[in-house]
């Protein structure tokens, strides 16, 4: 293999609180020769996700090791996530990505194969563990970036979290927080396709209008303009909430619980309000939870790798192909744009799935 230079992204300091672009640094390295079973991949797209920023950094390795153990056992793609999916000083950052094989010493991969898996935030990644990759059965009618969003973990999280955890029924009243995000927008769309009444919240007027006009939500509101979330939800749900899909936590969860109907279900997908806030967090009224017999369940996308995936792909593909599901992608370009993209994720700047395109397909 010819000598190749590779730009990659790392951090210069531990990130506490809101991430800043100045905390990242682009470095250049010379790629070493490939060893037996190595696969050299040119990164095309990388996914920007909040899981890179742990709520408790010192617990991250143990958490991820346990999380990955579940993935190894349950993942039909045979994708093994490893314990470097967090941010460590001076180390290459990695996460979900799509790329093209440009050289291989592994019999399972050939030049020009398109793969998805654990890739560095870099121009190139040498993958030494083939279990962190899977070949994509690419559908030419859809962009490759869809495999990081609607056909990837965002889509499966929305599908499994809504249908498996919430167990919805036609006509039920559904509230979705962070409804313009990568998961929330899909939950709302799945709920509407089932025949539910759906209200979403977001952080800008543009997002609120998009939820109503483009995605078909029954209504939506800008939570930043509301001083009393409890009263706000009571106005939108005079007969109570049956299902709350929580991407936020904090005061939004507290208000939703206060407005839940008996035997309501809460799927806790994320708590982005907690990730960069070290202050004591608001908790829901547990008396409401008891007397209303409310079910609150957290989940991981790996919970759905076996039971739900075989239904998720054909159903979602058909919905996208027919135009019943709208795909929201927020794509930046170039490795230099990653710090800004990551910072923006925690400030609600993304509309749909945040992706960075590293190179042309």
UniProtKB/TrEMBL annotation:
Stretches assigned to coiled coil: none
Domain Enoyl reductase (ER): 17-356
Keyword Nucleotide-binding assigned: no
Pfam short name (any one): ADH_N_2
SUPFAM superfamilies: GroES-like (SSF50129), NAD(P)-binding Rossmann-fold domains (SSF51735)
Domain of life of the source: Eukaryota
One Gene Ontology molecular-function label: oxidoreductase activity, acting on the CH-CH group of donors, NAD or NADP as acceptor
Keywords of this entry: Oxidoreductase
Keyword Oxidoreductase recorded: yes
Annotated protein name in UniProt: Enoyl reductase (ER) domain-containing protein
Species of the source: Centaurea solstitialis
């Amino acid at each position: 293999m010819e000598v190749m230079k590779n730009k990659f992204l790392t951090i210069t300091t531990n990130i506490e609180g809101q991430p800043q672009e100045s905390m990242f640094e682009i470095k250049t390295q010379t790629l070493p020769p490939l060893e037996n079973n190595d696969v050299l991949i040119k990164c095309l797209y990388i996914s920007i996700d909040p899981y890179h920023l742990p709520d408790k950094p010192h617990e991250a390795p143990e958490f991820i090791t346990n999380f990955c153990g579940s993935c190894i056992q349950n993942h039909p793609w045979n994708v093994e996530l490893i314990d470097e999916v967090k941010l460590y000083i001076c180390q290459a950052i990695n996460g979900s990505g799509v790329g093209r094989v440009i050289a291989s010493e592994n019999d399972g991969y050939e030049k020009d194969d398109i793969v998805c898996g654990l890739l560095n935030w870099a121009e190139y990644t040498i993958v030494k563990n083939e279990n962190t990759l899977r070949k994509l059965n690419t559908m030419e009618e859809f962009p490759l970036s869809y495999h990081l969003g609607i056909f990837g973990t965002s889509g499966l999280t929305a599908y499994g979290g809504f249908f498996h955890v919430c167990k919805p029924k036609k006509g039920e009243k559904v509230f979705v927080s962070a409804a313009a995000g990568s998961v929330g927008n899909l939950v709302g769309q799945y709920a509407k396709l089932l025949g539910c009444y759906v209200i979403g919240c977001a952080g800008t007027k543009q997002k609120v209008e998009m939820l109503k006009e483009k995605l078909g939500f029954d209504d939506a509101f800008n939570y930043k303009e509301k001083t009393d979330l409890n009263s706000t939800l009571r106005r939108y749900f005079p007969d109570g909430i049956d299902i709350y899909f929580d991407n936020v936590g904090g005061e939004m969860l507290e208000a939703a619980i206060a407005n839940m109907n008996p035997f309501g279900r809460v799927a806790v997908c994320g708590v982005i309000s907690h990730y960069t806030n070290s202050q004591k967090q608001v908790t829901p009224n547990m008396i409401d939870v008891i007397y209303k017999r409310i079910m609150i369940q957290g989940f991981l996308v790996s919970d759905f790798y076996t039971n739900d995936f075989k239904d998720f792909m054909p159903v979602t593909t058909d919905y996208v192909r027919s135009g019943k599901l709208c795909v929201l992608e927020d794509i930046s370009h170039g490795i230099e744009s990653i710090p800004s993209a990551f910072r923006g994720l925690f400030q609600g700047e993304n509309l749909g799935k945040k992706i960075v395109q590293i190179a042309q397909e």
